[in-house]
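ok new one. same drill as before - C-alpha cells go in, u give me an amino acid for every spot. 190 of them this time. try not to just spam alanines like last time pls lmao
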C-alpha cells in the first residue's frame, strides 16, 4: 500500500506581513507546515523542535536575491533536507515546492515508510535531498505506531471485542508502550 510522503500537504498562510529577515517568519512557517519538514514530513520534535529546524529558501537566495524574504519562497525544513538541498537549483526539472499538489506526483511512501521516487524528477529530488535516509522511515513508523496505539485504546475502551481479542489488544498495547519508552527521549525536546 502506497502513501503520500506528506501526511497532509502544507499550505502557506496568505497575507503574512512582510519582514526584513527570513528568520522572522519561523513561527508562522512552523504552524503552516504543521511542525513538519516540508520535504520529508519528519516532525520537528525529532530534530530539537523549532530551535533545531531550518528555514529553506525554495529558490535559493544565492540565485534569487529578490526572494530571500518572500514568505511564499520559504519552507520549514529539517536540517537534513535543508543542508542536502543547499543552493542547488534546476529550473523546470529540479525541485518541486512541497506546498504544491504536484509534489506527491513524484514521490511516495511505501508500506514500510520509505520515501521512493515515482518519476525521473522524483528520483532527482530523492537523491539530492537524501530522502532515502533510514531515519525518515523510522520516524514515519513511529508515527504509525502511535496511531495504532490510539486505535487499540479505543477498541479496549469500547469493549465490544471478545475476551481473547481484548487480552491480545492489551498485550499489543503493552508492546507499543515499551517501544514508545525507547523513543521518548526524541520527544522530550521542544
Amino acid at each position: 500500500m502506497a502513501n503520500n510522503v506528506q501526511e497532509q500537504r502544507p499550505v502557506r498562510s496568505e497575507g503574512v506581513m512582510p519582514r526584513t529577515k527570513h528568520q522572522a517568519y519561523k513561527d508562522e512557517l512552523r504552524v503552516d507546515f504543521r511542525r513538519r519538514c516540508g520535504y520529508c514530513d519528519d516532525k520537528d520534535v525529532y530534530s530539537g523542535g523549532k530551535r533545531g529546524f531550518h528555514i529553506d529558501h525554495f529558490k535559493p537566495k544565492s540565485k534569487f536575491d529578490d526572494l530571500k524574504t518572500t514568505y511564499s519562497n520559504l519552507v520549514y525544513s529539517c536540517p537534513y533536507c535543508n543542508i542536502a538541498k543547499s543552493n542547488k537549483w534546476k529550473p523546470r526539472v529540479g525541485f518541486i515546492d512541497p506546498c504544491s499538489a504536484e509534489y506527491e506526483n513524484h514521490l511516495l511512501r511505501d508500506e514500510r515508510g520509505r520515501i521512493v521516487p515515482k518519476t525521473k524528477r522524483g528520483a532527482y529530488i530523492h537523491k539530492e535531498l537524501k530522502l532515502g535516509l533510514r531515519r525518515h522511515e523510522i520516524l514515519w513508523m513511529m508515527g504509525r505506531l502511535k496511531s495504532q496505539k490510539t486505535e487499540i485504546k479505543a477498541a479496549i475502551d469500547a469493549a465490544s471485542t471478545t475476551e481473547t481479542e481484548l487480552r491480545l489488544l492489551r498485550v499489543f498495547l503493552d508492546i507499543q508502550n515499551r517501544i514508545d519508552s525507547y523513543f521518548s527521549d526524541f520527544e522530550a525536546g521542544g
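The longest helix spans residues 163-188. and btw The longest strand covers residues 54-57.
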